[in-house]
Specification:
The structure holds 2 protein chains of 2 kinds. Chain A is an alpha/beta fold. Chain A has 2 domains: 189 residues, Rossmann fold (3-Layer(aba) Sandwich); 67 residues, no CATH class. Chain A is built from 8 helices and 8 strands; from the N terminus they run H-E-H-E-H-E-H-H-E-E-E-H-E-E-H-H. The radius of gyration of chain A is 18 Å and the shape is globular. In chain B, the strands form 5 sheets. In chain B, strands 2-3-1-4-5-6 form a 6-stranded mixed beta sheet, sandwiched between helices. In chain B, strands 7-8-14-11-10-15 form a 6-stranded antiparallel barrel. In chain B, strands 16-22-19-18-23-24 form a 6-stranded antiparallel β-barrel. Chain B has 3 domains: 203 residues, 3-Layer(aba) Sandwich (Rossmann fold), CATH 3.40.50.300; 77 residues, Elongation Factor Tu (Ef-tu), domain 3 (Beta Barrel), CATH 2.40.30.10; 102 residues, Translation factors (Elongation Factor Tu (Ef-tu), domain 3), CATH 2.40.30. Classes of the chains: A alpha/beta, B alpha+beta.
């Protein structure tokens, strides 16, 4: 068993454990490379069809390539798609020019809150990784959130070996992170090995590519000539630049991520 | 592609330099991105302090302001030999459960000791936990050698103290290395100020360790995780902890002692002839109705231990003390059964390593005991050093984690 297979098997075990414990469960799919890899792993875990809904938080500001990809693979993979959108906030003109923090919070966190409430989900599978951001490195595989979505990072429950906590209060839900132990380069190696489709924005065009994707107004491409997976892997081996360099919400001030995350941001 | 990975926990008393050592390892192995370095400088400015390597792992505002790690963090770096996942863990007693969370995921440990302070409470407690978790690869790093002008005597004093203490625990350190995390001495390169030391650098020591891998050579152990019904067909899913499984084989379910035949094996969209340790597979059995979560598949000629009364090392994690005769849920691999603590044979204070009492009525927070557990129904267990996942367990009450242990 090689390193990538080890990562994969660890994730599948966590996914199956989550489904065994929680029947009201859903998968969060931003349609980026990580959550698409997670969709792939969940399909693998259930030998083809995912037995629960896949949520896409749609801010209305996503790249057009993301929407096209979503339509194509919802069909091909027979996903039960749930679109989560904060229509009232959008109607009132919420957007990135109102401030990154306010915008992320309203169009992502609040939208998701409403969806969870509506469907009474008790667990959400999310594709965050420890190497993405120092704060995400502090996460547990199973992370409880209260009714207001708050992450009580100062009092996280212990998590030993692979015994995951499953007790839940009425108003809580669990964030479950099966990809926590993967690195960016591992994801690309796995995409290459498994031939997982990804949005074309990741591949260089006119010497620019997106390394991390989200909403169009808040993502900047990096300089790169990597127009295929092999070149991306090579680029990642040599780079000194952080993955989320092009993501505006990480940069506003030192603790924006901490504030966003403690309020329930992904 | 086939580059191995080793996960490693860094432990030790508060302020002995765990987070700084991690920062140093990242810096010297070139594992830092430009903006992480800028970020540290910016934070230092905001706090009106000198830039500290510890800011890299201490990500929470509360951690940086108090210069104290609160929760465990994982960070990646690579040497020429392999990839590493480093797990930083808090050194403060209040956060011992976070330390344990981090340490339970590691294959090797570094125990860091401040040369000017020597062994302290959390040094002992952490060593004890490393030992209890069955970790076999250990480096003791004697840090802050810069504070003693890189002199040999203070190091030798601490080393003698360490050797005595490790021996009392029946533990062995693979290396005891003098370092200065702040100045980067003996981390990845030798330092002439420490030329009296002839052993390897910290990184060379780490590179000599071997990662643990699931073993296909050991006898088959397959705890059933769940049963799915896919397109009208029942499939038994789970992960092979050890051994291998072949299509067409007869296997036994424990502890129910029913014999079943493996009709076919599947992974995703394909059939397999054979599955190996470490793999998650789906199995189609001739009599699927006999399968249930928690049963363990093994071969008749190589059966697991089945029992309902056994001894274990238990670490107590709850504010509420454990009392003899109390009931809990015993979780081991995918098994979950009620159990009762029949006896606490020995009680040990994990910070002083004193045997506090024999045959005692209770076990308090952060104490360890040798206990006798009786389960309501027979369970499948193994010695920890034989098959790890069947030799470790947790005790829960109302689904809250109360204690963790291993069977030796």
């Amino acid at each position: 068993m090689d390193y990538i297979e080890e990562l994969e098997n660890k994730s599948i075990y966590i996914i199956r454990e989550a489904y065994q414990r929680f029947k009201h469960i859903a998968l969060l799919w931003s349609i980026g490379k990580d959550s698409t890899t997670l969709v792939w792993l969940v399909r693998k875990s259930f030998l083809g069809e995912i037995p629960f809904p896949v949520i896409h938080i749609d801010t209305g500001f996503k790249f057009k390539e993301i929407y096209a990809f979503r339509e194509e693979f919802v069909r091909k993979w027979k996903l039960k798609l749930l679109v989560s959108k904060n229509e009232p906030a959008l109607a009132q003109g919420m957007g990135p020019e109102k401030g990154k923090f306010a915008c992320c919070n309203a169009l992502k966190t609040e939208a998701l809150k409403a969806t969870i409430r509506e469907h009474n989900f008790k667990a959400l599978l999310l594709a965050i990784r420890r190497d993405e951001h120092g704060l995400r490195a502090k996460e547990r595989y199973y992370s409880p959130r209260d009714a207001d979505f708050r992450w009580d990072y100062q009092h996280q429950p212990p998590e030993l070996w692979n015994f995951y906590k499953s007790k839940i209060e009425e108003e809580e839900h669990f964030r479950i992170h099966p990809l926590l132990h993967w690195r960016e380069i591992d994801i690309w190696r796995y995409i290459q090995r498994e031939k997982i489709p990804v949005v074309s924005l990741y591949f260089a065009k006119d010497s620019k590519r997106y390394r991390s994707i989200g909403c169009a107004p808040c993502c900047n491409p990096i300089d790169s000539n990597a127009d295929n997976i092999k070149k991306i892997i090579k680029e990642l081996k040599e780079t000194k630049i952080a993955e989320r360099i092009g993501r505006a919400q990480d940069k506003e001030d030192t603790y924006t991520m901490q504030k966003l995350r403690s309020l329930g941001y992904m | 592609m086939r580059k191995e990975n080793l996960s490693l926990v860094i432990t030790g008393h508060i302020d002995h330099g765990k987070s700084t050592l991690i920062g140093r390892l990242l810096l010297e192995t070139n594992s830092l991105t430009k903006d992480r370095i800028l970020e540290i400088k910016k934070i230092a400015q905001e706090l009106g302090r000198e830039a500290e390597l510890a800011f890299l792992t201490d990500q929470l505002r509360e951690e940086r302001e108090k210069s104290m790690t609160i929760d465990t963090t994982q960070i990646f770096f690579k040497s020429a030999k392999r990839n590493y996942t480093i797990i930083d863990s808090p050194g403060h007693v209040e956060f011992i459960k976070n330390m344990l969370t981090g340490a339970s995921l590691a294959e090797a440990a570094i125990l860091i000791v401040d040369v000017t302070e020597g062994i302290r409470d959390q040094t002992r407690r952490h060593a004890f936990i490393i030992n209890m978790l069955g970790m076999e690869s250990l480096i003791v790093a004697v840090n802050k050698m810069d504070r003693v002008n890189f002199k040999r005597e203070p190091f030798e004093e601490v080393k003698a103290e360490l050797l005595k203490f490790l021996e009392a625990l029946k533990m062995k350190a693979d290396f005891i290395i003098p370092i200065s995390a702040r100045e980067g001495a003996n981390i990845t390169k030798k330092d002439r100020r420490l030329n009296w030391y002839k052993g390897p650098t910290l990184l060379a020591g780490l590179n000599s360790f071997r990662p643990l891998l699931p073993s296909p050579r050991k006898p088959l152990r397959f705890p059933i995780q769940d049963i799915y019904e896919i397109k009208g067909e029942k499939m038994v899913v789970g992960r092979l902890l050890s051994g291998r499984l072949k299509e067409g084989e007869e296997v036994m379910l424990y502890p129910s002692l029913e014999e079943v035949r493996v009709n076919s094996l599947k992974i995703f969209e394909r059939n397999l002839k054979k599955a190996y340790a470490g793999e998650n597979v789906a199995i189609i059995l001739d009599r699927p109705f006999l399968a249930k979560r928690g049963l363990v598949m093994a071969k008749k000629e190589n059966p697991p231990q089945v029992c309902s009364n056994f001894k274990a090392n238990l670490f107590w994690l709850s504010e509420e003390p454990l009392a003899v005769k109390q009931f809990f849920t015993f979780r081991c691999a995918t098994q979950e059964v009620n159990c009762q603590i029949k006896k606490i044979e020995k009680r040990i204070d994990s910070s002083t390593l004193e045997i506090i009492a024999e045959n005692c009525p209770t076990l308090k927070l952060n104490e360890t005991g040798i206990v006798v557990i009786e389960t309501e129904k027979p369970v499948v267990i193994e010695k920890f050093h034989f098959i790890e996942e069947l030799g470790r367990f947790v005790l829960e009450e109302n689904q809250e984690l109360k204690g963790a242990g291993i069977i030796t």
